[in-house]
Amino acid sequence: MTQNQNEFTQPDTLGQPGTGDVPAGERGPDGPRSVVIVDDHAMFRSGVRHEIGDRCRVLGEAEDVDSAVQVILQTKPDVVLLDVHLPGGGGVEVLNRVHQKNPDQKFLALSVSDAAEDVIGVIRAGARGYVTKSISGPELIDAIRRVAEGDAVFSPRLAGFVLDAFSGAIDIASVDEDLDRLSPREREVMRLIARGYAYKEVAKELFISIKTVETHVSSVLRKLQLSNRHQLTRWATDRRLV
Amino acid sequence: MVSVSAHGRSGSELEPGPVLPRPEAHEAHTDSVRDQVLQTAARKAEEETGPGHRRATRVSDGALLGGVCTGLARHLGWPVMVLRIGFVALAITQFVGVIAYAALWLLMPPESRTSAPGLDAHRRQGLRQETKHRRRADWGVLLALVVLGAGLIWLLQMTGLGIRQQIFWPVAFACAGAALVWRQADTARQNQWKKDAGGRVWLAPLVARGGWPSIIRVVIGLALVGAAFGIVVAQQNQIQQLPDVLAMTVLALAGLAVVAAPWLHRSRTALNEARAEKVRADARADMAAHLHDSVLQTLALIQRQSDDPKQVQRLARRQERELRTWLYGEEVSDATLKAALSNAAADIEDDRGIPVELIMVGDCEVTEKLQPIIRAAREAIVNAAKHSGADKIDVYAEVGEEQVEIFVRDRGKGFDQDIIDEDRMGVRGSIIGRMARHGGTARIRSGPGEGTEVRLEMPR
User: Fold this and answer.
1) What is the mean pLDDT of residues A177-201?
2) Which residue out of B322, B342, B396, B402 would a mutagenesis test of the A interface target, given it has the greatest number of A Cβ atoms within 10 Å?
3) Nearest CA distance, A113 vs chain B (angstrom)
4) What is the pTM of this model?
5) Co-location of A183 and A160 in the same domain
6) What is the pLDDT of residue A154?
7) Average pLDDT in the B211-237 region?
8) Per the CB < 8 Å rule, is A160 touching B359?
9) CA A94 to CA B445: how far, in whole Å?
10) Which CATH number covers residue A223?
11) Helix A156-165 and helix A116-124: axis angle, to 10°?
């Protein structure tokens, strides 16, 4: 489904809609993903473009909230690489404005900051993953693929934050609320990711398929985005996230 | 007269010292750190290039007496010698030169050494030596006051408008008292006060807090003025009328105080606010300086070692870690497990040049009971850095209700646990053995080509 979304895309056209000469059928599931890079540092943008250029198609770049919203809505890339800190309201603002018009747009957040406010804030605003900017090229390409396929990308740090946020004794009153706690399996998956395991390794460790791992992670992402769990709210309030 | 024209001329150039408005300053502290730093940098730049016309300043470099001639020469673009000879000639003929010189000495602000924010910050933190010129200038100003006073008196006496002998001493007392009071306004702080008090520099001694010395000075000064007043009254009138006169004077002064009090209070508040603002601005400048400093150091080191990629990576990583903690980091008290593990990770990262990624869930105080697990974790990280050949080490620590768990994982070459080599004895002794001795457990999972994971558990 994601491949069909960007029929009109053209490599390296900055912010301009393509002319639709790439038939959707020609691209297998491992075909190049289309990407828009949003970051206020030109140096970082060109660095990323250089690193992922031969495996992904960079449809455009943007350096602030307004231009980002415009380029994303125009080019409809598979994945938007979104810097958390942006002039004009930050990555969260981009997420909100794009999702108003196009709720299916997928975002992968990148940041130099490991601050909990940034990570949880951008995930709760709708990003499907979070990685730090020190991530290596192949890892980034892998993360882009995962997000494009509708899965979530959890760095060890994000997994750590999730465990932190959902930790504590289970609130008896809200046990029924599925959203408000992690299942034991999800917890195990999160712990392994926090320990530095790749999805493949998590699958091997727990004797489950990679697809199941991805399902668990996506489910955790959903909980993180939707949960109003007392524990999470308090955790967020402590850190002035809400 | 020469003195008047000279005074008028320089005065017109001296007075309109533009007080820089700082409207952005109050909104500033709600912004992010980055915005604040940027704003500070922008304001500094504005201050440096700001005022359209330059003011004449006294120059301490190359000054013979007060730096007036040097300063004027620089301001007017004339040779210094011309001015010096001019002043000496005036002094010899009419003594006007002396008065003009002294007046200029007082009116021309000492050259303010605006330097880069980094230098200012270092000076504030005592990392640089304060230049000694200031002190000399301070004494010089006192000297200037004496010279000015003497010159004025001499002039008056010579012109025949001189003061009669009987009121000479009262006038002298009054002058000395006034000089003592205003002496305060004439230190190097004068400029600052002028800025703070919105140009009302004459208010500064009354509203500023200068500590005990300044209070004593003001009291003595006022007492001297009072004494002068008393002497005059005693000489002019009958001694028995003195109480009445004093009472009336006190009444008049009290009325004046009542009228002026709100105004004084307001000025004082403004002054304090300005001072607080300056402290905030300094703090921001210090932050900017710190930032640039540390990055500059690292860039220099990277240039020098640019042919050693490992070393460059290590430097960049350390700088990144430091900046990240400084910009976004949470305050971590030194006595927590998180701090202990972060320090261990940072040390090893620096020593070995391998990134160590630490993820913590929960945190707790470091107790004596937790020391072994911290040491074992450190040993495990060192081992991974030394032997695994992996390009990254993941450390995950979770503080639960009853126990602390730490996982140290690498994706390196791994090893067969049954044949642990001699130099891997650290694993047995300082990890497995140590944990067992202190009531914890250590499990190692490894195999050739699979990487290694050390799992440490310790009850709290």
Assistant:
1) 83
2) B396
3) 6
4) 0.55
5) no
6) 87
7) 71
8) yes
9) 44
10) 1.10.10.10
11) 80
User: Is the per-residue pLDDT at B80 higher than 50?
Assistant: yes
Domain that holds residue A152: 2-166
Same domain, A137 and A82: yes
Is A160's CB within 8 Å of B360's CB? Answer: yes
Q: What is the ipTM of this complex?
A: 0.72
Q: Which of residues 178-217 of A touch B (CB under 8 A)?
A: 191, 194-197
Q: Evaluate whether A33 touches A22 at the Cβ level (below 8 Å).
A: no
Q: How far apart are the first and last CA of chain B?
A: 89
CB contact under 8 A, A194 and B361: yes
Determine whether the interchain pair A195/B396 forms a contact, defined as Cβ–Cβ distance below 8 Å. Answer: yes
Tell me how far apart the alpha carbons of residues B47 and B51 are, in angstroms, rounded to a whole number. 8
Answer yes or no: do A41 and A159 share one domain.
yes
DSSP-derived pairing of the beta strands A129-132 and B356-361? unpaired
Query: CB-CB: which of A114, A118, A167 is closest to B361?
Result: A167
For residue B460 the two structure tokens come to: 């709290």
Same domain, A185 and A99: no
H-type helices in A13-155, by residue range? Answer: 42-52, 65-75, 90-101, 116-124, 137-148
Range B87-96, long-range pairs (CB < 8 A, 24+ positions)? B90/B2, B95/B151, B95/B154, B95/B155, B95/B158, B96/B1, B96/B2, B96/B3, B96/B155
Residues of chain B with C-beta less than 8 angstroms from the C-beta of A118? 328
Residue B405 pLDDT level (bands cut at 50, 70, 90): very high
- Please tell me the least confidently modeled range out of A2-11, A44-53, B198-207, B216-225: A2-11
Name the domain count of chain A. 2
Q: Spell out which chain B residues touch chain A, with contact meaning CB-CB distance below 8 angstroms.
A: 34, 320, 324, 327-330, 355, 357, 359-362, 392, 394, 396, 398, 407, 409, 411, 453
Contact list, B394 vs chain A (CB under 8 Å): 156, 195-196
Cα separations (Å) of B386 from A7, A179, B104, B309, B351? 50, 44, 71, 18, 10
Q: Is the pLDDT of residue A38 over 80?
A: yes
At residue A212, the pLDDT reads 92
Length of chain A equals: 242
Distance CA B243, CA B249 (A): 10
Q: Give the pLDDT of residue B283.
A: 79
Could you report the per-residue pLDDT of B140-162, keeping only the tens digit for each?
666 777 777 777 777 777 666 65
CB-CB under 8 Å, B396 with A114: no
List the beta strands (DSSP E) in B99-159.
none
Q: What is the pLDDT of residue B258?
A: 86
Beta bridge partners of B368: none
Q: What is the mean pLDDT of residues A27-37?
A: 74
Give the best-scoring range by mean pLDDT among B6-15, B213-222, B374-383. Answer: B374-383
Are residue A213 and residue A99 in the same domain, yes or no? no
Is A114 at the interface with chain B, CB within 8 A?
Answer: yes
The CA–CA distances, whole Å, from B410 to B354, B453, B455 equal 11, 6, 12
Q: Do A160 and B361 touch (CB under 8 A)?
A: yes
Do A146 and A176 share a domain, yes or no? Answer: no
Are A162 and A178 found together in one domain?
no
- Spell out which residues of chain B touch residue A156, defining contact as CB-CB under 8 Å: 357, 359, 394, 396
